[in-house]
Amino acid sequence: MNNSIVANDIVKEYSSGGTIIRILDSISVSMESGRVYVITGESGSGKSTLLHIIGGLDKPDSGRVEISGQDISNLSEEELTEFRRNHLGFVFQMHYLLRECTSLENVFLPAYMSGISKKDSEDRARYLIEKVGLSDRMTHYPHQLSGGERQRIAIARALVNNPSIILADEPTGNLDERTSRTVEDIFFSLVRDEGVTLVMVTHDMSLANRADCHFHLENGRLKQL
Fold first, then answer.
1. Which SMART domains does its entry note (predicted)?
2. Neighbours of 176 (CB within 10 A)
3. Is the C-alpha dihedral spanning 106, 191, 86, 222 positive or negative?
């Protein structure tokens, strides 16, 4: 399976008070299949911007991104939406679970909405919820879950469509240390068991130290540590 990421000469600029700020300065990086990559950097350094560009949630001012061998740089919004649904899973600092849906419903809905039968979607969702250790929370609503449990349900949801790549933006940022380690262990086991490529933006150096590859973003440049 080709779960690789290749970014070439990515440039992203913003205007602030009449001044042009180049937040990403000709970044090129290759990430191989089935590995864990972590990107660290100061707040405002452009980590999330880079992750969003890799995931097709934002467009660079110049440069291109290839995901699993597909150049996504010139895809239409409709094509990008389809590509993300089929190839990518996203986990953010906020879980963004639907308040009116149970854990099981939150996880199976993306698969069901993509055309998979309800039975197969629910079976996949149950398997993933069990895998993140919450089989006893299937019928719970988000307000009945702890912060760590909500984030674990969000991880299960990100995996329900069998993505080849998971992109995670500060996934442990709102969690206490003990819960962060639990979520961290789940991520690493999923990479091993599901064969996905994982790219995470984080301030958590413990997480960075466990990655297969650690990049640091500073002054618009990406450096491998």
1. AAA
2. 12
3. positive
